[in-house]
Please model this.
Amino acid sequence: MASITHHRDKKTGAIYVYSVESYWDKEKKAPRNRQTYLGRLDPETGEVIPSKKKGKVAERAAAAPGVTVSSRVAGPSLLLDVLTRSCGIGKLLKKCFPADHELILSLVHYIVHRGGALSGAEPWSAACLHPFGDVIASQRVSELLRRLSADERERFLSLWLEHVQEDDWLCYDITSVSSYSRHNEYTHFGYNRDGESLEQVNLAMLFGQNSGLPAHYRRLPGNISDVSTLRTTVKSLDFLGAGTLHLVLDRGFYSVANLDALFSRRHKFTIAVPAGRKWVEEILDKHCDSIASPANYLVTAGDEALYVTTEFHRWGKNNHRSWLHVFYNAERAAGAFDRFTRELIGYRDELLSGNPVEDHEEFYQRYLVVRETPKRGLRVDFNEDEIQRRRKKYSGFLCILSNKVKTAEEALDIYRNKDVVENCFDDLKNHLDMKRLRVHTAPAMDGRLFLQFLALVYVSMIRAATRPDEKLRHLTVREVMEEMETLVRIKYSKRYGEVLTETTPIQRRIMDVFGIELPA
Model:
């Protein structure tokens, strides 16, 4: 793709604008630049005053004998190229995949622009501008998916995590992706979040809370429980040398073993803790009568009234420092108990299905009554007395444990801002068409998941850029790309160069928001 450069005349002060196109000089075996004069920069408006030559390109080309014309959709590529440069992902891909980075970027362009099966990349690549430049045949795509090695992918993910992480909080969550394949070593039947009776893989992901960008992902077997995925992911990140992580976790990832692992590896975390744990209830018992004091009153940014208190807590045998932040909302007490009821039903179903989870053992013993007889087999009932005691005393409480955040208000803000995870998973499955995987072999699946992760980075950047803009915030990412489709590059043969079609008002708005500069 051509870029724009400015040259100032030292004598007159006039600024001249050129289009710069890079190419490879085969004879000298070195990169070279070809500059085309576009016009002069208006010092008052900042607009380019086209040269007479450029303004008459179409007329002269039409009048010249033997001149051919070709056109390709340019708008989506112009937008995505800007994002590639701004986030640094292009340089990292070139470093980790020197022979394939342009092809990878082109397939990512296709996924963000059109989506769907990768077989559609062939006609798309013939009609649109993209980094690879040439038509992408289906065979080339299949070969690439098999060629993307685990070492190359892990190297990129390690560098990308380091690039995104810095001091950002990383939100961790897991989702399931269904697959039509029944001969894939990674797919298994498990808890399917989309309610589909298909084998699946689980996808554990980290998201930067402040940047809003996907930071890392890990493919896991489809039958692994959520709570046990955290230790596996943290071990792999430690192996990659990720350094100290700042994790934000939902209550579904709470277990003594998980927190012990995070403490031992010196990672920082903020996690919602189930109120049904005995040590938590002991702390709640201390504050039940006094928490609804005016001294503990807090009104959140969303105008929600809460009563809060914080207790310093020593965790485990090694007495690790942590803070338990307790929040009480009387209006939410009924909803809290409904959530607890759904959790209990899930625990009961785990036992009835013969798939107990070790980290749920305390809940089994306190809230369920398990009987097994020769005639009726396994029977699981609810411990109604214990459940009602919990309902009367502990409903309406939210407990957040952190080994970094010392104030309740900050802990609540950090925890609630983890909705970036839900937004990204929604984009992954809906905008990026990842509800079901259509690839069948394990290597191809890994390659496809890697491309989807990269595409999710771009979708997240587009959302972050359009959300603050009044005119663009209501457009979906796909609609933004569709608006840019009518911006077309028209190229003339011989020495007549190329021009872009006129831009629409909405395109000019998009280009302004994303900082896209066009040749005049």
Observations:
- The mean pLDDT is 81.
- The radius of gyration is 28 Å.
- Residues 73-168+177-239+435-488 form one domain.
